[in-house]
Design goal:
Elements: H1 15-22, E1 32-36, H2 42-49, E2 57-61, H3 64-73, E3 78-81, H4 87-94, E4 99-104, H5 113-126, E5 132-137, H6 146-151, E6 154-162, E7 169-176
Parallel strand pairs: 1-2, 1-4, 2-3, 4-5
Antiparallel strand pairs: 5-7, 6-7
């Protein structure tokens, strides 16, 4: 509540939302899975429970306290304290060249437009032609605007409404199309 623009929700994502997001990742497909805005680790845990090998997962969390919490909770994972607005540079340092999926819990709609557009640019570029972007939002509309989807040749589809989350959340999946 002290920093409403740093963290997008008053409550952590529910297990139901985390499982719905993780279910969209094709674990048989090669490549790294990048998690953005890991928070307290609900989605991270769901990704691991879905069968994603720990060495394939790269977790990016900007907040230093949440990063420390994640590092302690998941010492076997590559948990980076970094800003998603610079994820291209951050990922260069990890050696992740092929991206299977980006799983984002970032509060895109509450971010300043230039920051949001920089993150959208990196996400769209990094998934290439074969990767996907998984993003949740609280409203029924796509958190990525039509103009941005058109700019990056993305197709977005709302995959699930998770009523068991507070507030209810929509899971969107984007891919080149």
């Amino acid at each position: 509540m002290r920093s409403p623009l740093k963290i997008g929700a008053f409550l952590p994502s529910s297990r139901s939302l985390a499982r719905a997001m993780a279910a969209e990742v094709d674990i048989e497909k090669p490549g790294a899975i990048i998690e953005l805005g890991a928070g307290t680790g609900a989605v991270t845990h769901a990704l691991l429970q879905a069968g994603i090998a720990p060495e394939r997962l790269v977790v990016i969390e900007r907040d230093e306290r949440l990063h420390a919490l994640m590092s302690a909770q998941f010492p076997h994972l590559n948990v980076l304290c970094a800003d998603a607005a610079h994820m291209d540079t951050v990922l260069d340092a990890t050696g992740a060249t092929q991206i299977n999926a980006i799983v984002s819990s970032l509060p895109l709609l509450s971010m300043p437009r230039p920051v949001r557009q920089a993150i959208e640019h990196h996400m769209a570029t990094l998934i290439g032609d074969d990767g996907i972007l998984i993003q949740f939002t609280y409203g029924p509309k796509s958190p990525i605007s039509r103009s941005q989807m058109h700019k990056y040749q993305l197709q977005g589809k709302r995959m699930k409404l998770v009523m068991a989350n507070v507030p209810p959340a929509h899971v969107w999946v984007y891919r080149r199309g």
